[in-house]
Write a structure and sequence with these properties.
alpha+beta
């Protein structure tokens, strides 16, 4: 049985250009700003719930798009047709400052555990009681507590995650509809595909 992921992610294959997806995300944001807040670059976006009272467990969705278009042979002697496709990667996580603190706490507990193991080995070699071996146990309990808190945070923010994902799905449908209305593109000999 697989453990639940601390940062749930998804991958979607879309039949449109990356620009169509990013444009749809921007347009829907301008039309309905009360649902989602976002920042975008050319092929990347970060979406969060636009809430009056932001909570520390509020999720962020990190989106990346990649053009995966390719030319397909037509078989009729005509120039090959370009199959427009895009991969959309999304990863939910807490706000960046919360995630950084989480990773720092886990990393610190690992470093302290390793140091205490070496200290415990030194205690054994010098004939003392290995009291330093208590620290890795405490660090493992702390790490388990942090993992459990990440899962609790996901549970508390589940409705916001669904709202953000629904927003992305709505924008993706609009982008694919826009791409369907365009005429097919023929890949010519000068194409870099």
């Amino acid at each position: 049985m697989a453990l639940p992921r601390m940062r749930p992610s998804f991958v979607i294959d879309a039949r449109c250009h990356p620009e169509d997806i990013m444009d749809a995300l921007r347009e829907h944001l301008e039309a309905n700003p009360q649902r989602v807040a976002a920042t975008f670059s050319q092929y990347h976006g970060v979406l969060q719930s636009n809430d009056d009272r932001p909570r520390f467990w509020a999720p962020c969705l990190d989106l990346s798009v990649e053009d995966t278009s390719r030319a397909t042979p037509s078989g009729t002697g005509v120039a090959p047709e370009l199959v427009v496709a895009t991969k959309l990667w999304g990863t939910f996580s807490p706000r960046p400052e919360i995630w950084t603190g989480f990773v720092f706490a886990i990393g610190t507990s690992v470093v302290i555990s390793v140091i205490s193991v070496f200290f415990g080995i030194a205690q054994i070699m010098s004939g003392e009681a290995p009291s330093a071996f208590v620290v890795p146990v405490v660090a493992m309990l702390l790490a388990a507590g942090l993992y459990a808190s990440a899962l609790v945070g996901q549970g508390l923010s589940l409705d916001e995650m669904y709202r953000i994902r629904n927003y992305v799905d709505t924008c993706l449908q609009a982008a694919e509809e826009r791409a369907r209305r365009r005429p097919p593109i023929r890949a010519d000999a000068s194409s870099q595909l």
